[in-house]
Amino acid sequence: MFDDLTSKLDRVFRNLRGVGKISESNIRDAMADVRRALLEADVNLQVSRDFLARVEEKALGQEVMKSLQPAQLFVKIVHDELVALLGEKEARMGTAKKPPTVIMVVGLQGSGKTTFCAKLARHFKAKGRRPLLIAADLQRPAAQDQLQVLGESIGVNVFRGESKNPVEVCEAGLRHARKISLDPVILDTAGRLHVDDELMNELDRVRKGTEPAEILFVADGMTGQDAVNSAKAFFERLSFSGVVLTKMDGDTRGGAALSIRAVTDVPIKFMSVGEKLDQLEPFHPDRVAGRILGRGDIVTLVERAQATLDETKAAELEAKLRKADFNLQDFLDQLKQLKKMGSLTDLLGMIPGMGARMKNVQVDERALKHTEALILSMTPFERERPQVLNASRRKRIAAGAGLSVQHVNRMIQQYDQMVTMMKQLRKAGPGQVKRVFGR
C-alpha cells in the first residue's frame, strides 16, 4: 500500500536529515522533491498545490529554522498536513432514526462495489447486527448471482426481487427487512463503465425511493485521477456521504486516497485491503498518514491480531514454547493464524521502519504455502514427531505436496533451527538473550 510514494518521500527525508543545517534553500529543494512524488502518485494537481503551500508555509517558519532537530520537525509537518488532507479523524457510519438503516452503495462497474457490499455486511454481522443485502444491480449479467454467492458464504440474507425496476426491488427489500427485523439494509446498485445520465437518473430514483442514511461511493484505489473525476460526477448528482477505497492491497499509487477527500469534502469511511471478505478496515487518517511516511501502523496490526488470533491456542503455544515442546502441528496452526491477518508484505509494512528496509526485498508468499502443503502431506504421527522423517517418508511427503525433497529438507532444517533457538532461550537468563540472537 502506497509503496512507491512511501519510498520517494523516505528518500526526501533522508536527504534532509543528511544536511547539517536547514535553510530556505534546503526546504525548497525538499518541497520540489515532494511535489514530484505527489504528481507521480497521480494526486490531483490543485490538491497537490494547496498541500505543498501549507507545508512550505509552516516549514519556513522560525520554529523550524531554530529547532535543534529541524528535519524531524519537517517530517512532522508533512505528517500533520497529510492527516488534515485525509480527514483528521475516523468518520463513523450514520444511522437512521427509525430502523432499518439503509446504506446505498454506488460506483462504476469494476470498482469492486458488489464485493464491498458483502464485506460491509460481514463487518456489521461481526458486530452483532443482522444485515440484509439487496441485489439492485439489474444491469450487469450475473450481478445478483454474485451477491447471492457472497451472501451465502458469510451467512447473510440476500433479497432478490422479481421486478425489473431497481426502485421496486429496493422498496420490496425494505419491506422484507422491516418484517423480519433485519438492520442495516445494504443496496448493491447498478454501475456502468463510465458515468452517464441513464445511470445517474436510475440511482437518483433509488435514492428518493429508499431515503438512505448513508450513500457510499466506491472508488478503485488503483485508478488515481480517474477515480477522482468519477467521484466528482457522482457527488454532483447524489451528494454521497462517504467514500470507500478498494484494491488498496495492489499497486496503488495513492492519488485517489489523497485527492478524493479534498475534492469532494466527503470523508473516506472504509478501505479494502485484500480480496477476502474479512479484509475491510475503517479508514483512520492518522494511521494511513503513518503508513505513507513509513512509520508503520502498529495499532491496526494489533487490532488485526486481536480479531483473528485464538487466545486459547495462543496460551497453549506459550506453554509449549516455555517447555521447548513445539512440533510441526503447532507450526501449521501458527501459519494458519498468520494467513488470517493478511499478506506478509502488508503485515511487515505496518511495523515502524520496516517498510523502508523491505522496499528492495521480495517477500515470497509462496514459501508459506509450500510449508503448509508439506505439513498437510504428513500424517499426524509425523507432525508430532518430525524426527521419524527418514528418506522414504520425505520422498512421499514431497510427492503429496507436489514439491521436491529439497523443499522438505529445507523446511525441516528451518524447523530444527527454530527448536534449537527455543531451547537456548529456555536455558538463557534475561542477560543472555542478546547473546543468543548474536547481538
Can you tell me about this structure?
The chain has an eight-stranded mixed β-sheet, with helices on both faces. Residues 429-439 have low confidence and may be disordered. The chain starts with a helix and ends with a helix. The chain has helices spanning 3-17, 24-40, 45-59, 62-65, 70-86, 113-126, 143-154, 166-179, 197-210, 225-238, 255-264, 285-292, 298-308, 311-322, 328-340, 344-349, 354-357, 365-376, 380-384, 391-401, 405-427, 433-436; strands spanning 102-107, 132-136, 157-159, 185-189, 214-220, 242-246, 268-272, 280-282. It is an alpha/beta fold. The chain folds into three domains: 3-86, SRP54, nucleotide-binding domain (Four Helix Bundle (Hemerythrin (Met), subunit A)); 102-295, Rossmann fold; 308-342 and 363-436, Signal recognition particle, SRP54 subunit, M-domain (434 Repressor (Amino-terminal Domain)), CATH 1.10.260.30.
Shape: flat
Oligomer class: single chain
pLDDT < 50 runs, ≥5 residues: 429-439
The N- to C-terminal Cα distance equals 32 Å
Order the strands across the largest sheet as they lie in space.
3-2-4-1-5-6-7-8
At CATH's second level, what is the architecture of the largest domain? 3-Layer(aba) Sandwich
Count of helical regions: 22
CATH evolutionary superfamily of the largest domain: P-loop containing nucleotide triphosphate hydrolases
Helix content: 55-70%
Question: Could you report the average pLDDT, rounded to the nearest whole number?
Answer: 80
Instruction: Profile the largest sheet.
Output: 8 strands, mixed
Domain count, please report it: 3
By CATH, the topology of the largest domain is: Rossmann fold
Please trace the helix and strand order, writing H or E for each element: HHHHHEHEHEHEHEHEHEEHHHHHHHHHHH
Strand content: 5-15%
Specify the structural class.
alpha/beta
* CATH class annotation of the largest domain: Alpha Beta
**Radius of gyration over C-alpha positions, nearest whole angstrom:** 26 Å
Tally of extended strands? 8
